[in-house]
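Illustration 12: DEAD/DEAH box helicase.
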Amino acid sequence: MSFASLGLAPALLDAVAAIGYATPTAIQAAAVPAALQGRDVLGAAQTGSGKTAAFALPMLHALLARQGTRRGLHGLVLVPTRELAAQVGDAIRALVQHLPSTIKVSIAFGGVSINPQMMALRGGTDIIVATPGRLLDLARHNAIKLDGVATLVLDEADKLLDMGFADEIAEILALLPARRQNLFFSATFPTAVQSLAASLLQEPVRAQVDNDAAHEPDIAQRAIEVDAPRRLQLLKHLIREHGWKQVLVFTATKYASEHVADKLRRNDVAAEAFHGDFSQGARTGVLADFRAGRLHVLVATDVAARGIDIAQLPVVVNFDLPRAAADYTHRIGRTGRAGASGSAISFVTPDAEAHFRLIEKRQGLRVPRERIAGFEPVEADTESLTGAPAADPNGGIKGKRKSKKDKLREAAAKQPA
Ligand code: AMP
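Figure caption equivalent — predicted structure in token form:
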């Protein structure tokens, strides 16, 4: 399969060659020809599958064909986070740079002042990549007109719904012309995502490359059993032993991300927290340091980490397990992108064993449990042997267990500073 066989304009073939894509990824091979015919597409694709180009190339093809005729907003790409907006916008701009025509790609997201974004939209735009709330604000300010949109893309539809954008999406749909093309991408398909897809798409072509094992990213999954208070020591041990230079560590809370990053720094590991309280400027700075290798460990929460795209991220560590099974897939999708191999390591504490089993069940996985010498769990872990709930070492009542924060504080108190 080659890009030339997909039916793309010659200028686009030159552009993909110029940015170094040799052959289409599976989702591109499945989605591009259908989208070029004007069909709706339902794509089951993870981050790292090459889905951005899968929807960007057909939009750019249409824009090249219409040059000199109609103007106005052609493509609307809705994304769940500002990081993803910036990343997708930059990826489309990288392609546009190599095209002979001027195609304007705008990026809009909340959490920053709206005025520069309004200014940037003066004179119109061909494509806009936006988070739903900010797009609505821009439409309310008449900074953008949505009634001429030819192609709507929902990127990471599952995360859009997870983040509570269902109402905003409905409002946006009401502003779009009824006749349009819809390209719908999601990593997972829980009921809410399926209903949204069903209400939006007309006779879609299904591009479900996920089920095709040959195209699954090459990710080695590991699960290490460890007691909660020993996780920091284990993390330091693994970083040192493997000489990891680029690790993305997930924690459940902002507090934990700060705490873990702080402890690592005190042990001379170049680490930073990465969560939603950071300003956009601070996030961009931290990401740039991580990309450039000045920072070896990024300790992130799920929401903040969404959209981090770093080619060949080698290691992801679940310091805390994700609450939702779908987030497990999203997290490990940060590694092993576009052919590169990666490893995803989950720390499984005795308390979290039952939860990890649930994640495995939901995702159809079985990850063998490992123990690392010197870090074997010693807490009462009858649960993992018998399937019965672990005895509370403090003789506590169920439901009166220590909170995660308390446990973290305890863990912190036991660590050498
Ligand atoms: P995405 O899933 O769209 O975020 O893409 C994941 C990564 O794969 C990005 O770094 C892209 O630049 C890269 N990529 C996309 N398509 C191709 C391709 N056909 N060949 C090689 N790399 C690609």
